[in-house]
């Protein structure tokens, strides 16, 4: 192989590797969806906005477990509240003390500590 072609191939391989790694990290970081449409009632109740760790769930369940039987596949499109969760809808389909821990530990879900809960997230 001539040297020039070798260098071009090497650079291409490095570029591909770099892009794989960077999207990998990006997914892990951007995998969180902040749910804050009920900000007024959450403030009143003294809980923070909700962070839904999408990636954490995506590696444990097939997409079709949640989409679209439990959640419409669009950020902000689901009208979720605690009454529904406690009666086994939305997060409560699993966070019921059987599939996963019960919705008693408020701060596990209401955990957003950043300053821009409504900033667009680059999630898909
Ligand atoms: C444990 C349940 C769960 C699983 C499993 C899951 N999702 Fe989601 N997904 C959600 C929730 C909750 C939201 C946020 C909905 C909202 O904001 O009302 C969401 C939102 C989305 C969105 C919309 C994001 C946006 O910015 O509008 C897409 C796209 C999506 N999911 C794709 C997937 C894909 C692809 C998979 C499988 C690899 C998957 N989801 C698995 C619960 C899940
Ligand atoms: C399809 C089932 C399912 C649904 C629906 C679901 N979860 Fe989960 N969730 C799980 C399981 C299983 C775990 C892991 C429990 C464990 O480790 O004991 C988990 C763990 C979590 C964790 C902890 C993550 C960590 O890093 O330990 C959070 C936070 C969470 N869920 C929030 C939510 C929220 C908010 C919703 C609704 C928007 C939701 N979940 C809906 C199954 C689900
Ligand atoms: C399994 C995750 C989870 C747990 C645990 C949880 N919540 Fe929530 N909560 C949510 C989600 C998701 C929403 C909807 C947020 C939105 O769309 O703005 C919500 C909404 C709310 C709201 C506003 C809507 C309403 O129902 O009035 C209040 C207040 C609230 N939660 C209080 C609590 C308290 C108090 C606890 C502990 C006893 C708790 N939550 C535990 C996920 C959870």
Description:
Helix content is 43%, strand content 6%. It is mostly helical. The chain has a domain at 31-109: Cytochrome C3. It has a two-stranded antiparallel ribbon. One heme C binds next to strand 1, helix 3 and helix 4. Residues 35-38, 41-42, 45, 47, 50, 80-83, 85, 91, 95, 103-106, 108-110 line the site of one heme C (HEC).
What structural class results from the helix and strand content?
Answer: mainly alpha
Unreliable sequence segments: 20-29
Number of strands: 2
SS element count, helices: 6
Which small-molecule ligands are present, each listed once? Answer: heme C
CATH class of the domain at 31-109: Alpha Beta
Shape: elongated
- Terminal-residue CA separation: 42 Å
- Spatial order of strands in the largest sheet: 1-2
Q: What is the chain-wise order of helices and strands?
A: HEHEHHHH
Q: How large is the share of residues in beta strands?
A: 5-15%
What value does the average pLDDT take? 83
The major sheet is characterized as: 2 strands, antiparallel
Rounded to an integer in angstroms, the radius of gyration calculated over CA atoms is 20 Å
Helix percent reads 40-55%
